[in-house]
Design a protein that fits this description.
The chain has ten helices and no strands. It is an all-alpha fold. The chain has one domain: Glycerol uptake facilitator protein (Up-down Bundle), CATH 1.20.1080.
Amino acid sequence: MIGTFVVVIFATGSVVLTMKYSGTLGLWFVALAPAVAVAIMVRIFGKISMAHFNPAITLGFFITKHMPKNLFPLYLGAEIIGALLGSIFVKYVIGTEAHLGANAPDYHFSILLIVGVEILATALLMAVIMVVVHTKGLKGFGGITISGIVIGAMVGLDIFFLAFVSGASMNPARALAPAIISGYLNDLWLYWTAPFIGSAIIAGIYRKKFVK
């Protein structure tokens, strides 16, 4: 819950600040802020909770049997509560611009492309996470610190290169919280379908190939 709270503040707060200052901070800031937050939270909480902070990743870990089924609803609840608290913090401390940093796709692109890109963004993130898990935290390459940096970097790269099409949420909780608190629910359907599909595809491949 704490990890998701921090990640949502950085991910959505960076969007709010960029809009507040008329875009002067730029896309690099919007991509870097959540990347740093994810890296730090994985470093701090990785050994405690496996540092999901994302319902799509939780679903992936459920599919690959990296977590018992009785914890699945608890993780989802913690992530959603943490995300909602994060958006409330953003609203009253940082600002209300851009619907509290809610994700939004560019509908100049086709729906199929938007959905496909969001699936791809989440699949890339899930794939990197599964590499980290399978190698036991990139053992031999610096352990959990490097793991956090690698996962955070993937989040940042997805946002930097793919957000202009789909919004690159990759995280249903991160999308849900600002949408609910701001009342901007228009695009929530996308972020509660595509990320789960993306993570499930990679988790299914991993389970078939590596889980005995």
